[in-house]
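Thread: Newbie trying to understand structure tokens

Hi all, I'm a second-year student working on a class project, and my supervisor (Dr. K.) asked me to get a predicted structure for one chain before our next meeting. I've only ever worked with sequences, so writing a 3D structure as a token string is new to me. If someone could post the tokens and maybe explain what I'm looking at, I'd be very grateful. Here's the chain:
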Amino acid sequence: MSQNIDIKALSNLAKISLDGAESLAVQEKLLDIKKIIDEVANLELDSIEPLYNPLDREQILRPDEVTEKDQSSELQKNAPETIDGYYVVPQVVD
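---
Reply by user tm_fold:
Sure, no problem. This is what the structure looks like when written as tokens:
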């Protein structure tokens, strides 16, 4: 990949104006970022197993239990129209 970054085109896309010194500073920063990205892209990771959890622990989950009663029929009393437990709404797409 080219080491030149078209700062003028980028600043135009970003709708910002940069003078000469700012353009050079931005170009240097972007080239530094590109170097880091290239280093990460070139890492040899084939022998490394993926992490499912960064900690050496098992995730402790609470039991999946219903703790509230079903109030849907009570809540649907406020709706203008329901059919078989579903809210009826006007059609918005043909």
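A couple of things are worth pointing out once you decode it. The mean pLDDT is 89. The first strand starts at residue 82 and ends at 83. Feel free to ask follow-ups in this thread.
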